[in-house]
Amino acid sequence: MDSLYRGVVTADAFSSFEINITQNRVISAVCRNPDVFYPVEGVPVPGPLDANTRYWAGRVMSDNRDDFIRMMDRENLLVMYEVGERSPWIEYMVYDLNGNEVYLRESLSLTKDEDSGDIVGIIIMRDITEQKLVEKENMRRLRVIEGLSVDYESVYFVDFDSDTYDIYRRNSYITRRYGDCFRETYSESIRVFAETGVFPEDREHFLREMQADTIRRKLKSQVATRFIFRVQTDRRFPPRRYRVKLVRTGQGEQHISNVLLGFACVEEEMQAESAQREALESALRQARQAAEAKTLFLSNMSHDIRTPLNAIIGFTALAKEHVSEPEVMQDYLNKITESSNHLLALISDVLDITHIESGRFSMEESPHEIRELITQAVDLIRPQAARRRTRLAILVDDSLPKRIYCDSMRFSQVVSNLLGNAVKYTPEGGRVSLSVKRRTPSPRGYVSMEIVVSDNGIGMSQDFMKKIFDPFERENRTAVSRVEGSGLGLSICKGIVDAAGGTISVRSLPGKGSRFTVNLAFRIAQENEKPEEESAAGKKFHVFRKKKTGEKRSLDGIRVLVAEDNELNREIAVSMLENMHIAAEAAENGKLAVDRVAEMEPGYFDAVLMDVRMPVMDGHAAARAIRALPDEERRNVPIIAMTANAFEEDVLAAKEAGMDAYVSKPVDVKSLLAAIEAVMRETK
Ligand code: ADP
């Protein structure tokens, strides 16, 4: 072939080969890059075409090697010429001598040599590596964009200069829903979309934000900007919030023309966010309320505790000044006792409320006579009613069963609290009535009871009635002289009634009176059912293990060990015992008490009074240690627990530690004597 012609054709080419397909020959080669085209032994140029093609196929590293082999097959090339396909081409990758990837575009030009009639051809190889790398980089970029824009339902490439746009991505919903909005120009499309899709209130803002000028201005100082607007295509449904993100393409250009634009629906996301925010806010509100309630509780408590305490301190100081005047002294002491009892009642109310509110409140049931229960509760109020000359009317329905299962202490607490309030909040000479009736129907084996306490007292306002069962709530009535109370009684009543599965309600008119109604169901007990051992919770004392015979033993001259860490309490206990002619010894903690019992001769102590909370060794551990002593008589010395926590679990713990009885603090002479008497062993 004419070398001038070849020179022109291959001017920008990498390399070229002249081949004769009919003769199976590579005739000549011009190789511009020796790193790619280097001489190989057994594959001469000039030389056989098929051997050269085979060798070259081995150099093709891209996955289209088979295509190359098929194309360069001599038979194939001849057929191609025949069918008029005279410029086949293929692109592939080979490695050069240094192992670099080189992309080649191989193009053939097939002709017939008119002289010989042979089919000949020119192969031109162009290095397209650079172009390929750019393509690859573009692909990579596209994939990056694709990846970054998955959160967007539709993505557009906008050219502001020409007011045109390309749809980069758009899902089928958008196409279906907003198909009409896709107009020739960007500005027209935005206008139509604003009119048909954007929520009317947001339209103006949307159009302003989407204007080329606004976007250009914003993207001058930052790469991306975003805003939220609402879309509403159907009036029947609420609008949904969308986010538009606008990203500048190209770097640091003075004049911004190209922008990538993505739309994403963020309604669910924002709803979830606001739900989360609301949840947090409500948690915060609750925490604040709890903190406020706690503060209120503490300030109420310190006020309510301070009042009787002030009286105790004050009258004690006065008493000291009048030691020689028995009558005055007696009066002060009575006042001190009264305030002490008030303080004690307040503290047990607080403990009850704490138990009720923490849900650790349990009821114990045993058979009781209804009339007895009612009498017990009313008796508690009689003195108070007598003092105020209140007429008490008690009405008990005859059709009620004789005995029921119930927690007598809790029952009495509810009824006496309601009666007490009725008396307290009714002016002197008023009327208070209690009626206990059977309600029908009742479940089999049960009796439904309605307990009504009514008075013709001062009554209360409608507003106050709403919070009457909340702890510490008391109606503030300046006209009424201050009546003692803590505002806990009714909360406790409600707590007890709730725990028993009943209801409590109130009706009242200011100046006319109030009426409290309690509905409760009780299991009916048979006549012959013996009272079970009653719950000890809340009682002054309780005996787990009684002495064997009912014979009374004189307590005169017996000896008791008092284990108590608090000096004052120790002194009180010792003095009480000594006043009863009982010899008392004291130990400051559980450990010392155990040592004392162990070192004295067996039977030296007739009983041990054991405080529960003590340093070094607590009462439970000490009781266990005594019960493990080697000597039988020492081991069996009666032990009475003394604790301030009169709850079921404390009583159980004392019993489990091997103690015989339990006295609740503050200890009074009567219960102490009764407890000692109950646990004392037979005469030695
Ligand atoms: P306390 O009597 O110790 O204040 P309660 O919880 O028993 O506490 O009662 C809360 C408040 O309800 C009382 O302070 C009083 O204002 C009102 N209240 C209760 N019972 C009556 C009643 N029978 N008549 C009028 N007001 C009552």
Written description of the protein model:
- It contains 21 helices and 24 strands.
- It is α+β, with helices and mostly antiparallel strands and 684 residues long.
- A hairpin with a 6-residue loop joins strand 15 and strand 16 (446-455).
- Helix 11 (326-358) packs across helix 15 (489-499) and helix 17 packs parallel to helix 18 (619-627).
N-to-C span: 142 Å
Q: Number of helical segments?
A: 21
How many E strands?
24
Over all CA atoms, what is the radius of gyration?
51 Å
Helix content: 40-55%
Content of β-strand: 15-25%
**Overall body shape:** elongated
Bound molecules: adenosine-5'-diphosphate
> What structural class do the secondary elements suggest?
alpha+beta
Poorly predicted ranges (pLDDT <50, ≥5 residues)? 532-538
* Largest β-sheet summary: 7 strands, mixed
Mean pLDDT over the full residue set: 86
Short description:
The chain contains 21 helices and 24 strands. With 684 residues, it is α+β, with helices and mostly antiparallel strands.
Observed structural traits:
single chain; 684 residues; alpha+beta; 24 strands; 23% strand
SSE blueprint:
Blueprint: H1 3-9, E1 15-20, E2 25-31, E3 47-48, H2 49-59, H3 65-72, H4 74-82, E4 89-95, E5 101-112, E6 119-127, H5 129-148, E7 154-159, E8 164-170, H6 172-178, H7 186-196, H8 203-210, H9 212-221, E9 224-231, E10 240-248, E11 258-265, H10 267-321, H11 326-358, E12 366-369, H12 370-387, E13 391-396, E14 403-406, H13 408-424, E15 431-439, E16 446-455, H14 462-466, H15 489-499, E17 503-509, E18 513-524, E19 541-543, E20 559-563, H16 567-579, E21 583-587, H17 590-599, E22 607-611, H18 619-627, H19 632-635, E23 639-643, H20 648-656, E24 661-664, H21 669-679
Parallel strand pairs: 13-15, 20-21, 20-22, 22-23, 23-24
Antiparallel strand pairs: 1-2, 1-6, 2-3, 4-5, 5-6, 7-8, 7-11, 9-10, 10-11, 12-14, 14-18, 15-16, 16-18, 17-18, 19-24
Helix pairs in contact: 2-3, 7-8, 10-11, 11-15, 12-13, 13-15, 17-18
Adenosine-5'-diphosphate binds near residues 425 and 488.
